[in-house]
Specification:
about 230 residues; 2 domains; single chain; 9 helices; globular; Rossmann fold; alpha/beta; two-stranded parallel sheet
């Protein structure tokens, strides 16, 4: 987790109630919005490795992060522990792209100015994957609460801003076939995004639940004689 002050509402990766299984958090106190979401500082890698190893020592069966921009560290972090480690929902983009043929994957991000080619490459997104990026850095209330790390904010207004950004994305790019939310603070608004776009919407909570299910398979018992 980044060290932040903004509210962690239900659906946010930093809210316990987002998941129906036990989660444990470690805060990387050197890392905040300014040096991760505004401009990712590669000097933070060692601090994230330290906390990943601590989570593993505590018994975590899988590890993720609270910011999609940490895809920049995906390879190094995954190599630092022996449990599955996934930094970002951006890891889903190549898979989603294959699901929708030649249509584009729309990526809604907290800050398009910081979503560089290196971040995309860290998530396995090569230039052959058709994508289009929509940033929220110009949305006043979202920027005020998330990018300025404000402990208070108008959630209803942010909902409207995210909805409008999704509408803009598909209006400007009618060939978008699915949406991936880079920002781990956006899952609370996934439903409204889907309602206004009528598209599949993927995010970090979907990826986290997928990994959880891979580690907790259920038994299928036939109830008939074959």
């Amino acid at each position: 987790m980044l060290k932040t002050k903004f509210p962690r509402i239900p659906g946010d990766i930093g809210n316990f109630s987002t998941f129906n299984f036990p989660v444990v958090y470690r805060i990387v106190r050197e890392a905040g919005i300014d040096n991760v979401a505004r401009k990712t500082d590669i000097g933070l890698l060692d601090a994230f490795i330290r906390e990943a190893k601590e989570l593993e020592n505590m018994g975590a069966k899988a590890i993720t992060t609270s910011c999609g921009f940490l895809s920049l560290f995906q390879d190094e972090l995954a190599r630092s522990v022996r449990v599955p480690l996934f930094t970002s929902s951006l890891l889903l983009v190549p898979l989603v792209s294959m699901m929708i043929g030649k249509r584009k994957v729309g990526i809604i991000t907290a800050n398009s100015e910081n979503l560089t080619r290196k971040h995309l490459e860290g998530a396995g997104i090569d230039p052959s994957v058709p994508i289009v990026i929509k940033g929220l850095e110009d949305k006043k209330e979202f920027s005020k609460m998330i990018l300025n790390d404000n402990p208070v904010g108008d959630i209803a207004k942010i909902r409207e801003e995210v909805r409008d950004a999704a509408r803009e994305l598909v209006r400007e790019n009618p060939d978008v076939g699915a949406i991936v939310l880079e920002c781990t603070n956006l899952p609370p608004y996934a439903k409204i995004i889907q309602e206004v776009t009528n598209l599949p919407v993927f995010d970090i909570t979907i990826l986290t639940n997928m990994v959880y299910n891979s580690l907790n398979r259920k038994e299928f018992v036939p109830n008939i004689i074959w």
